[in-house]
Amino acid sequence: MAAARVPLWAVCVLRVALATVYFQEEFLDGERWRNRWVPSTNDSQFGHFRLSSGNFYGHKEKDKGLQTTQNSRFYAISARFKPFSNKGKTLVVQYTVKHEQKMDCGGGYIKLFPADTDQKNLNGKSQYYIMFGPDICGFDIKTVHVILHFKNQYHANKKSIRCKVDSFTHLYTLILRPDLTYDVKIDGQSIESGSIEYDWQLTSLKNMEKASAEAEGWDQAAKDKSQDWEKHFLDASASKPSDWKGELDGDWQAAMLQKPPYQDGLKPEGIDKDVWLHQKMKNNYLTEYDLSEFENIGAIGLELWQVRSGTIFDNFLITDDEEYAENFGKATWGETKGPEKEMDAIQAKEEVKKAQEEDEDDMLMGRFSGRENSFKGFHGRNEL
Question: Where is the signal peptide (predicted)?
């Protein structure tokens, strides 16, 4: 008997049920967003946010988000949610950003903060776990920041990840997995991925910390490692001679069948201390240190500087499910990206037409003015 087919809608519902959504914000309830988002009062000169879909959009209501409104200002605002730990779980951070003003210099990134962050006092010195998103300034800086907090230090991805620089809305996604791999996506397409350990240059940090801890027990550890390795090459069939006296002859040990070969390029005797420690750390480090796990994530925020304002932030999502994030992106940005570009194209044509009409009006006025002056000159000559 053939198994019954499961409807697609049922699969989707199950997937949503399995996903854990820690935070989701689409700003669909008008000005009630002010009950969830707390502006920092740390500096009276901080810029203000408003809810807006901008001058062009795919959907006037769905595309509304937090928009910066004042030029040459720092901005700081955040929203709190139930604290969680991503230990042993995938962490997905996603949102949309639109530089409608054609950004010349300023940030478009977000930050994840510890649950005990003082929202009213949020500023550039506030500790954060993750900083992610685009940063543009002049011709040189057009990058996607991915900065992680680890061992009381901030570590940036050493790879250069280029951001979008146009004036349309773009979807940014960061995925951190428990197997220490990561993925950075823009508009649903992976643009960079790899190892968190190596792409954040955390290897040198772990070596320093681990080496200092291992140095004390080096002598005994090296001896034990050498002896353990040699046991694999002893003649198991040999037996202690009947006339062997432990008091006089010492501990008996079977003869070696052959000289122990190198193990991963290391000799069992006379192992170089630094090389051995490196090998030992390579095998054990990842289970002892959490490079991308944060115990108390509890707030998301915008803490940035902009020379020219107008950026719109929307469709925030924090979850443990990559597929849910992908579907959420399609249901939000995916539905409005096309109409947004269509509206921009229509406005551009209207602006060109208006400019042409104004030029034609100026030309007609110029001709009329010239004729009027000619008439006045003719009339003046007749009076003479």
Answer: 1-19
